[in-house]
Amino acid sequence: MKKKAIRNSNIEFLRMFSMLLITLHHFSLWGQGDRADKLITNGHLIDAFKSLIYLPLGDIGVYIFVMITGFYLGNKIVTNGQSLRKSVNIYGQLYFYSVIFLFIGLSYHLPLDNFPNLRDPLMPFNHVPNILMSVFPIVFNHYWFVTAFVLLMLIVPYLNIVLNRIDKRQIQILLFISIVSTSIFPLLNNNVASESVGLGVVVTAYIIGMYIKKFCSLGKSSFGIGMLFAIINIILIYVITYYDITILKYRYIRIYTGFFALMSAVGIFLIFVSLKPRFNFILNKLAKHIFAVYLITENIFVIKPLWKMFSFNNITDLIKVNVFGLIAVLAIMLCACCIDIIRSQIFRMLSSLVTVTKQGIILFKAYVMSNNKKV
């Protein structure tokens, strides 16, 4: 029997780190957004920048998370069956939390429309979007990242065929086209290849992960290049963020999905994959459940109450706010992983029950058939 490959704990830690960046972004976006708006309105622009210090980190985390998938899967032959099973597993996890929180939301009479000012007047059943998003999470794009990731998994068999048939030069040309269209064009308000959040940026990150695994020699030189990429591009990101918030007085910064965020992610990714491989059972176990952090914290019924609880509105010292925010996010992530471990045990028991039931039915049919023959 073929042994399951042991995952490099450096990369599994990077997976968790990417989710930390995503969740810190949400802390700034949802937990500190109202504070930042008031600070901007009152002319306290530097304080507004401080209150949104984690805001630019979200897309860096998204890029890294998908690069890991490309690193592991990009050079493999993935069948339609494997792709479908992976998509179903993701959807099962997603649907579990969507339905659970839907029942909780209905039981406690939580709002069925969290963002009425953002609704599309042409959307059918517009008065209960939370129910639609919970019952049909992919169709109504409950979580953009999950929707894009599931679509990526469905096209991976075909994407990998192309990537493994073309040579290095052709992949470089493909990457150039993809990076320009999905990470530079959006900075110019050109979303023809991808919205600010969408499948295009996810596919680009996947191809980069595959390219690094297949063509880059990983060691001290790649570690140094990664450090250079990460430092330079993170500095550029925060310079642009500072300009957007303090000069343009606009907190929805343009850098969410952009070239600099992508290059920062490439740099951080290179740093971790260049390290000597290590193995830690606990770390690898937690990393398997880290996706649940996104599913739980970004649930349509959870998002507002959660970040309202951790907005720290009674604290005026913004350094303390951000430190407490980091601690809160780490605690939230740990709790979400623990919840998902319980969820996985429930799924495992249900799977065992289905297997036992099937075996029982087969045995019963065999018993009936053998008795009929005797008769």
Which descriptors would you attach to this protein?
mainly alpha; single chain; 15 helices; 375 residues
Write the layout of secondary structure elements.
Elements (H helix, E strand, L loop, with lengths): L8 H23 L1 H9 L3 H7 L6 H16 L6 H28 L21 H7 L8 H22 L2 H17 L14 H17 L4 H27 L12 H15 L7 H7 L3 H7 L5 H7 L8 H57 L1
InterPro entries: Acyl_transf_3_dom (IPR002656)
Protein name: Acyltransferase 3 domain-containing protein
GO molecular function, one term: acyltransferase activity, transferring groups other than amino-acyl groups
3D architecture notes:
Residues 9-337 form the Acyltransferase domain. The chain crosses the membrane at residues 52-73, 94-111, 131-159, 171-188, 194-212, 224-243, 255-274, 286-303, 323-342. InterPro entries: Acyl_transf_3_dom. Keywords: Membrane, Transmembrane, Transmembrane helix. With 375 residues, this protein is mainly alpha-helical. It is built from 15 helices and no strands. The protein is globular. The model has no long low-confidence stretch (mean pLDDT 88).
